[in-house]
Specification:
The protein is an alpha+beta fold. Helices cover about 35% and strands about 40% of the residues. The relative contact order is 0.13. The protein has a single domain, classed as Ribosome hibernation promotion factor-like (Double Stranded RNA Binding Domain), CATH 3.30.160. The chain has a five-stranded mixed sheet with strand order 1-2-3-4-5, covered by helices on one side.
């Protein structure tokens, strides 16, 4: 059993995001680390103040398992996928995570927007008969 734990820290627009990549039962190559890090940097577009991302890459016989957990202020989201290829498993898990974060971003945006929208709306002109 070979376990590799690496730690990356990215700074984007004044925010810090810690990326932790772990490998279970195999060695995580530098190319895989670079791919994972570059794709995870794209999660900043959701502006949900993600503080840490933990990626677990695991091999069990012919199954490649990728589990991504994103945590931050009032946020904890996990996506897990199984495939025959590690890159495919990561891409699929990343897609699921982006879908979940997109929904969370819309909930926050809609919740904040509804309060301000009520104040700015003007009442319709009504005719008195």
């Amino acid at each position: 059993m070979y376990v590799t734990i690496t730690f990356f820290q990215t700074i984007h627009e004044g925010r810090t995001m810690n990326i932790d990549i772990s490998g279970r039962h195999f060695h995580v190559s530098d190319a895989l680390k670079d791919t994972v890090t570059e794709k995870l940097k794209k999660l900043d577009k959701y502006s949900l103040s993600i503080e840490t991302i933990h990626v677990v890459l695991e091999v069990q016989k012919f199954h490649h398992i990728c589990e991504i957990t994103a945590a931050g202020k009032n946020l904890r989201t996990t996506a897990k996928e199984v495939s025959t290829d590690m890159y495919a498993a990561f891409d699929s898990a990343m897609g699921n995570l982006q879908l979940q974060l997109g929904r969370q971003h819309d909930r926050v945006k809609d919740h904040k927007g509804s309060r301000y929208q009520e104040e700015t709306e003007t009442p319709q002109d009504t005719e008195l008969i």
